[in-house]
Specification:
By secondary structure, the chain is α+β, with helices and mostly antiparallel strands. It has two domains: 130 residues, Histidine kinase-like ATPase, C-terminal domain (Heat Shock Protein 90); 190 residues, PPM-type phosphatase domain (Phosphatase 2c, domain 1). Helix content is 26%, strand content 33%. Helix 5 crosses helix 6. The protein is globular, with a radius of gyration of 20 Å. About 2% of the residues have low confidence.
């Protein structure tokens, strides 16, 4: 994952080159990497022209042996009052030909916009080699893992495994930030991969033992069985988790402590989880008092847009940031 700040037009070209290289490193051929560069250029240009600046984030997508890329453009500009009108070729508010958003939609295998007047705009574009859609997935996932400004290493991390009945997710926040925090987070994900078939309380206890030589971490495990209408959680520290169903937000409790140093006996909590519930997990790099009521219609969009909007508006700016949004794909 890479992030490119876009404050003025001079930063568009470096972002385009960086995203083109990212696409090539992800296995895109010259033509497909060029397509990604075109979409990136349009997103960045709109960030400058209409958003007053912002940022574009690129991450890799996986579909078996195929890899795609996801572009997320975020700004806090004036917003768009009629997204549908802006998607039609020929519509422009800046004297341009008015083909940018429509072109991005045609070049992408998935393209979505979420915008609210006065709050800004978030643009999502997913691109795959040969313009072929990925295979159908059981889960829709959006995730951002961003290091503290000025840092290279990120102490936040997450991992997951699909289970027959649903999903098990781990969110990790290594204590502090920088290289030592990233070591703790990496060790937690390594242990999760080894222990992921075990019950969540056992995984948390094993994480505690494995992280003793490290700086330690906050950790939250959430397991969801959508068909049974049940979720369970085991959480230590300040990695927040919430289940969102319609307009209802249920924030999941966590125990005090530091995994790897001091924790009580892992405690598993049970929660109701409807088939249309969405899981949101985030570190304390984001404020905990986010309110989806500010964003009518956001939960109908792809989880990547949900994650992007929460990151844009709720990041503290003085720590690593993690936000993961997962829901079951509508059948």
């Amino acid at each position: 994952m890479q992030k490119f700040p876009i404050g003025d037009v001079s930063e568009v070209a470096p972002a385009r080159r960086g995203i083109s290289a990212f696409a090539s490193d992800s296995g895109f051929n010259t033509e497909d990497a060029g397509r990604a560069a075109l979409v990136a250029t349009e997103i960045c240009t709109n960030l400058v022209k209409h958003g007053g600046g912002g940022e574009i984030i690129v991450r890799q997508l996986n579909d078996g042996n195929r890899r795609g890329i996801e572009l997320l453009g975020l700004d806090k500009g004036p917003g768009i009052d009629d997204v549908g009108k802006c998607l039609r070729d020929g519509y422009s508010t800046s004297g341009s030909p008015g083909t940018g958003l429509g072109a991005m939609e045609r070049l992408s295998q998935r393209f979505e916009i979420f915008s609210r007047v006065g709050l800004g705009t978030a643009v999502l574009a997913q691109l795959w080699p040969d313009s072929r859609q990925p295979s159908a997935q059981r889960l829709e996932i959006g995730a951002l893992v961003i290091p503290k400004p000025g840092e290279i290493h990120c102490g936040d991390a997450w991992c997951y495994t699909e289970r027959v009945e649903g999903v098990l997710v781990l969110g990790i926040d290594g204590l502090g930030h920088g290289f030592a925090a990233s070591q703790a987070a990496a060790e937690a994900c390594r242990v999760f991969e080894l222990e992921k078939h075990r019950p969540a309380p056992r995984i948390m206890q094993t994480l505690h033992e494995a992280l003793r030589p490290t700086r330690g971490a906050a950790a939250t495990l959430v397991e969801i069985d959508w068909d049974a209408g049940r979720a369970t959680s085991v959480a230590v520290g300040n990695v927040q988790a919430a289940l969102v169903t319609g307009n209802e937000i249920k924030r999941l409790a966590a125990d005090n402590g530091i995994v790897g140093h001091v924790i009580s006996r892992p405690r598993e909590l049970a929660h109701e989880c409807r088939p249309d519930s969405t899981l949101i997990v985030h570190s304390d790099g984001l404020t905990a008092n986010w309110n989806l009521g500010r964003y009518p219609g956001l939960m109908q969009h792809h989880p990547a847009l949900i994650a992007g909007v929460l990151y844009r508006d709720c990041q503290r700016g003085r720590d690593d940031s993690l936000v993961v949004v997962i829901r079951r794909t509508a059948s």
